[in-house]
Design a protein that fits this description.
Length: 393
């Protein structure tokens, strides 16, 4: 059982901590499942905490996209009947053997002949494999580009697809438009490119995977609503594939499902003008704030008063000057050492990113919030105007 937010005693807490908001998680999942016309795989890397995975499973997602053998083990140990898709296109021989023989994994992705041969050898030429080809597509509209490392296209993709067909029970194709993809039409282009490849290669494909990348609404980023993304996908997909065709549409969302499910609370250890030195940073839970430059809705923790807000930047606790989060983060002008700040939308790519650089690792501490009174959260005042954030879709 997680301790409740009502049990938080700031005098006893040394490290940054999270507030878990299961109602937000439920809402994000319900919303995604109601608009997506296919099978949804949760991308475990986004937030692999066991109670988050259990809640995701309970809300109807029974399939998981995993990147490593440790994620395979985590999912299988929690859910005997979950469908596990090992979608990292490069895997060690050990990971493939373990996943296939000891954890019942039958779905593997690849983008090279070499990986195909490795999978075939490591599974002893198994006849029940489902192999997914990772197609390369532009990531031009994504805040985080994932296109450079993986993916194949053109004649190489066609050749590989034909080769895979001879060695695999069922075939899949997949792509990823990049994380925090800000334009729904990126999916349209990718679907059209992938559908053409399928047509040209004359291979019967069973799985068509549109990846993750669905965005969260962070301050300063106003993506179109999720339903618009899923409508574009649905319409484009049905242009190429009939309603009654056997092809199964898959997606692998991460961020959009879990970002609203947790907030992070950090302490100010020093204020230098408009720079706040806080007890978490780029090497901690705030990787995306430092490296990617995301900002989050922030407020002084447990402060409901309407106070004038001014912009701040944050420094993390390590001695590295790259441990910097530019923001701007709008907080009360009077904020000072010893105050706590709550950052919303910290459920994605936070807990997994923390490391022990400069000795600042601590096991994540998580408290649970049972209910969210309002969809609209009041954050404070900026230039006399009320600032709110809408955590819903
Ligand atoms: C293969 C794969 N699927 C899904 C995801 C989840 O992406 P997102 O969190 O942007 O939805 C990622 C993220 O890196 C990925 O690499």
């Amino acid at each position: 059982m997680l301790p409740s937010v009502n049990d938080i005693n700031l005098k006893e807490i040394r490290d940054p901590f999270f507030v878990y908001k299961p109602k937000n998680l439920k809402k994000s999942i319900k919303s995604f499942l109601s608009y997506f016309p296919g099978e949804t795989l949760y991308a475990v890397k986004t937030n692999p905490i066991d109670f988050v995975l259990k809640n995701i499973y309970d809300h109807g997602i029974k399939s998981f996209d995993v990147a490593s053998i440790n994620e395979v083990k985590l999912v299988r140990n929690l859910f005997k009947n979950a469908n596990i898709y090992f979608m990292n296109p490069v895997k060690s021989r050990y990971a493939i053997k373990e996943a296939y023989f000891n954890y019942g994994v039958r779905h593997f992705s690849l983008d090279t002949d070499e990986e195909l041969e490795k999978i075939i050898q490591c599974t002893n030429f198994a006849s029940d494999l489902n192999l997914h080809l990772r197609i390369s597509i532009p990531n031009d509209f994504a805040e985080i580009n994932l296109s450079k490392k993986f993916g194949v296209d053109g004649p190489d993709a066609k050749k590989l697809l034909i080769k895979m067909k001879k060695l695999s029970k069922k075939i899949g194709v997949s792509f990823h438009p990049g994380s925090q993809c800000m334009n729904p039409f990126a999916y349209k282009f990718a679907i059209s490119k992938t559908a053409s490849l399928i047509k040209e290669s004359c291979v019967n494909v069973t799985y068509f995977n549109v990846g993750g990348g669905f965005p969260s609404k962070y301050p300063g980023m106003e993506p179109e609503p999720l339903r618009k993304y899923l409508k574009v996908i649905s319409e484009e997909f049905s242009k190429y594939f009939h309603k009654n065709s056997d092809i199964i549409l898959l997606s692998e969302p991460g961020r959009v499902l879990v970002s609203n499910s947790m907030s992070l609370v950090v302490r100010i250890d020093l204020r230098k003008k408009n720079y706040l030195y806080i007890n978490d940073g780029t090497y901690g839970y705030m990787h995306d704030a430092g490296v990617t430059g995301f900002t989050y809705p922030v407020r002084k923790f447990r402060e409901e008063k309407k106070i004038k807000l001014v912009p701040f930047s944050f420094y993390g606790p390590t001695c590295d000057s790259k441990d910097f989060m530019k923001g701007p983060f709008f907080l009360p002008e009077s904020i000072a050492e010893g105050d706590y700040i709550e950052l919303e939308q910290m459920g994605a790519y936070s807990i997994t990113m923390k490391n022990n650089f400069n000795g600042f690792y601590s096991e994540p501490k998580i408290f649970i919030q049972d209910s969210l009174k309002n969809k609209i959260h009041f954050l404070g005042l900026k230039n006399g105007n009320k600032i709110t954030t809408n955590l819903g879709f």
